[in-house]
């Protein structure tokens, strides 16, 4: 039998749990054409949530969704090609229409459409972009024009939005997007991404183009009660047994972070024949840390000694007053100015974040690895 747990992929079907409240809010935003900005650290469930909400939204016949993932989009030109292609593709099921749509709406840009060999269900589109506002507008207004012509509504969902920071002129790019998108009536946007600090800057700073673009949602982790119930049910449905207390311990070790909860539950499930024992649980927790260790080794290699000392201080002391003299001395952090610098770097790298006015490691298993292995050796 296959494991009833999934991680590293979009959570779907019976692997998707809870989020009822967030889903309702998101679908209502799509319906009401309220743009949404969704922010959380990596692997808290943004992509899964938006995916699920978009599929609920498009259950109605005249509603469509376009899922854009900026994960490997490196520059603005690549973005425009990809954006146009996805909008055209997702709003028409007939490949024959693709070329016509491109030609009729994007004529000014002399679009070149090509079909990869042996692929009838995909195509590429490239343009000769001049550096003119009207060129960018033609592309950015494409969903709205199609929506009007076809009398449909479109939800455009842009994942890994924080990646636009790597474009040559991120600010100019944001201005272009905002200038076009804010006028749209039949198209609604959902922009989501990690690197909480950066995303927050993009959407909450008055001087930034996307300020007040829409409803900003900070996605939380999934409540322990739901996760515990989910784990118990998944075990039961596959003929294995886990006590609610042990299931709860899984969520505690993973600090309710959806990805690690699923990964740890998966390992426990694999290691269990009939019923989970505490020996199986402990062994699985060690495996969880070991399986992820290569990533953590890489992460620590990119940190300086004082940055590592700072993490050690956070983990060992669990204190709020990170500027306390004795801490700075004991962990050799230099000056308080230095502590500020370290803190900023670690926040920007999304290694730490502020929770209830105390700095914590974002990644619960990285924390376990540091505590149980790295700082012990
Ligand atoms: N609603 C959910 N129910 C159960 N597990 C989830 C849920 N959302 C996310 N997960 C788990 O977390 C992992 C990461 O989710 P993902 O949506 O890719 O997060 P993000 O986009 O924030 O990085 C998934 O592979 C899955 O294991
Ligand atoms: Mg994602």
Structural notes for this entry:
This protein is of the alpha/beta class and 377 residues long. The chain has 3 domains: 200 residues, Rossmann fold (3-Layer(aba) Sandwich); 75 residues; 72 residues, Arc Repressor Mutant, subunit A (Orthogonal Bundle). Helix 1 crosses helix 2, helix 11 packs across helix 12 and helix 12 packs across helix 16. The longest helix has 24 residues. The protein starts with 19 loop residues before the first helix and ends with a helix.
Supply the number of helical segments.
16
- CATH fold-level name of the largest domain: Rossmann fold
Estimated helix fraction: 40-55%
**Strand element count:** 9
CATH architecture of the largest domain: 3-Layer(aba) Sandwich
- In this structure, how is the largest beta sheet organized? 5 strands, parallel
- Spatial extent as radius of gyration: 24 Å
Note the run of SSEs as H and E.
Answer: HEHEHHEEHHEHEHEHHHHHHHEEH
Q: What oligomeric assembly is this protein in?
A: single chain
Mean pLDDT equals 95
Query: Which sequence of strands runs across the widest sheet?
Result: 2-5-6-1-7
Highest CATH level, the class of the largest domain: Alpha Beta
Bound molecules: adenosine-5'-diphosphate, magnesium ion
Number of domains: 3
Helix/strand/pairing class, anyone?
A: alpha/beta
């Amino acid at each position: 039998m296959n494991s009833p747990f999934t991680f590293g992929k979009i959570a779907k079907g019976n692997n998707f749990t809870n989020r009822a409240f967030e889903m309702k809010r998101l679908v209502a935003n799509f319906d009401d054409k309220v743009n949404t900005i969704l922010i959380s650290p990596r692997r808290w469930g943004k992509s899964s949530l938006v995916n699920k909400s978009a599929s609920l939204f498009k259950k109605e016949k005249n509603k469509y969704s376009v899922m854009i993932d900026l994960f490997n989009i490196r520059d603005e030109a690549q973005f425009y090609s990809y954006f146009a292609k996805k909008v055209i593709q997702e709003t028409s099921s007939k490949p024959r229409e693709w070329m016509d749509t491109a030609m009729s709406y994007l004529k000014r840009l002399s679009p070149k459409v090509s079909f990869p060999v042996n692929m009838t269900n995909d195509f590429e589109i490239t343009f000769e972009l001049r550096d003119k506002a009207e060129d960018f507008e033609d592309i950015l207004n494409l969903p709205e024009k199609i929506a009007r012509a076809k009398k449909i509504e479109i939800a455009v969902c842009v994942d890994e939005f924080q990646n636009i920071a790597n474009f040559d002129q991120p600010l100019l790019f944001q201005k272009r997007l905002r200038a076009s998108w804010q006028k749209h009536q039949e198209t609604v946007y959902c922009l989501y991404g990690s690197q909480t600090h950066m995303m927050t800057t993009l959407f909450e700073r008055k001087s930034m183009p996307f300020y007040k673009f829409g409803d900003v949602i900070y996605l939380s982790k999934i409540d322990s009660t739901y996760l515990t119930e989910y784990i118990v049910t998944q075990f039961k449905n596959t003929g294995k047994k886990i006590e609610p207390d042990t299931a709860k311990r899984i969520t505690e070790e993973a600090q309710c972070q959806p990805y690690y909860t699923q990964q740890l539950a998966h390992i426990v499930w694999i290691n269990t024949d009939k019923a989970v024992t505490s020996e199986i649980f402990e062994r699985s927790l060690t495996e969880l840390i070991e399986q992820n260790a290569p990533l953590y080794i890489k992460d620590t290699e990119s940190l300086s000694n004082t940055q590592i000392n700072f993490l050690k201080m956070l983990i060992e002391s669990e204190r709020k007053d990170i500027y306390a003299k004795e801490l700075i001395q004991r962990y050799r952090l230099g000056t308080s100015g230095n502590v500020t610098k370290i803190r900023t770097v670690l926040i920007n790298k999304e290694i730490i974040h502020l929770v209830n006015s105390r700095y914590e490691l974002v990644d619960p298993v990285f924390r376990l690895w540091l505590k149980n292995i790295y700082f012990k050796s």
